[in-house]
Write a structure and sequence with these properties.
By secondary structure, the chain is mainly alpha-helical. Helices cover 78% and strands 0% of the residues. Its main location: membrane.
Length: 275
């Protein structure tokens, strides 16, 4: 039996699960183009007579999604950039630089993966309050970065461990420092791991509701998940606006994943094999 023929039974077995996962999203997208009368029809998957693009314009205008998307983008960019700046050097140091307590330090970071953020939310809030960072985008960026660092270090270290030490020795012969080795040697060959870290950080940051709920109070600084909940509660009876706003909230991050899914899979796979 060829490899292609062996894949058919698995594909058939996964098809029902795929349908269950996609059905709510398909229903949501179709309903976002309907009128209120069409949404109340018996068959939720019936295609609308006319595509109501106005639903998205009304939701964008009434819900203030421009400001919400802008806040979420600033938050996402800050978390992703700081995660890369922190996790790449830390992963390199823990993988290739020998120093006392290296393994114990790595285990301490891994311990951070086992502690739910809900268990430390009060100390986090007190620290932010003492630094006057409550209700600011800077505060939520720092909190989400600290929450993303343990997995980011684990991912980058797992990839760097598989890089031959001969590359480091050759670079040292040419007079390169560890920082130059990281920038000029390791990062160029670790593109899959870097892109996987970018996607994971972006997904978790964009969809995070709990931490922004604790840190961000004023509507002017709230991110998209918070604004969507506020918008849905205000216009709970206007389903066309709620459905359109929900599609607006998850469309950008889905497009990012679709564009980078191949690299995302390669980064996780190579990191798992090499780690």
């Amino acid at each position: 039996m060829s490899v292609r023929n062996r894949e058919w039974p698995m594909a058939l077995a996964l098809t029902p699960a795929l349908i269950l996962i996609l059905a709510p999203f398909v229903w949501l997208v179709i309903s976002s183009f309907k009128t209120e009368a069409e949404i109340g029809q018996a068959d939720p998957f019936t295609w609308p007579a006319d595509l109501m693009w106005r639903n998205y314009l009304d939701a964008w205008r009434i819900g203030g999604f421009g400001d919400l998307v802008g806040n979420s983008l600033l938050n996402l960019i800050g978390v992703v950039v700081l995660s890369l700046i922190t996790c790449a050097p830390a992963g390199y140091a823990l993988a290739k630089i020998r120093f006392p307590g290296r393994e114990w330090l790595f285990y301490a970071f891994i311990l951070g993966l086992t502690v739910p953020v809900q268990a430390i939310v009060i100390p986090l809030y007190q620290v932010l309050f003492g630094l006057n960072l409550v209700n600011t985008l800077t505060g939520i960026v720092l909190v989400q970065v600290s929450n993303a660092i343990p997995f980011g270090i684990f991912l980058m270290r797992s990839f760097f461990v598989g890089v031959p030490d001969e590359l480091i020795e050759a670079a040292k012969i040419d007079g390169a420092s560890h920082f130059q080795i990281l920038i000029k040697v390791f990062l160029p060959i670790s593109t899959p791991a870097v892109q996987a870290l970018v996607i994971i950080s972006a997904l978790s940051t964009w969809n995070d509701f709990f931490l922004p709920l604790i840190v961000l109070i004023s509507p002017e600084v709230q991110t998209l998940p918070l604004g969507l909940v506020r918008f849905a509660s205000t216009y709970a009876s206007d389903y066309r606006l709620v459905f359109s706003g929900t599609v607006i909230s998850f469309l950008p991050i889905i497009l990012l994943y679709i564009l980078m899914q191949r690299r995302f899979t390669e980064g996780l796979t190579q990191g798992a094999i090499k780690g």
